[in-house]
Amino acid sequence: MTTQLPSKDLLLEACSGLVIQPHPILQAAYELASLHEARRTADPATLSEIDSARARLAHEIDQWVIREPPRPHAAATLHTETVGMVVDRIARFSVDAHCTLDTAASEAHLHYAW
């Protein structure tokens, strides 16, 4: 069975807290972004718990990709990260970028974050 991966726009919306289309990767992206947000202010004693939850979600994404393999893009190349790892990284960067907007960051810092 061939299933579509969510678009980059839907993925970024999910990382921002808006899941419009029901899709397991979008739900996981939302949860990953929430965990990255919590990680920013978490007590150091809870960081391993948060990171374990992130690893579990990344693994769930990877398991979904194995069960529902998307049609490969003609120009796709072998990647060193799993889809779950990439979604986790995108969630982190999305949270970092939005948090930068909420602070009095310099123009250079805003440019780097976005």
Automatic annotation (TrEMBL):
<protein>
    <submittedName>
        <fullName>Uncharacterized protein</fullName>
    </submittedName>
</protein>
<dbReference type="Pfam" id="PF14063">
    <property type="entry name" value="DUF4254"/>
</dbReference>
<dbReference type="InterPro" id="IPR025350">
    <property type="entry name" value="DUF4254"/>
</dbReference>
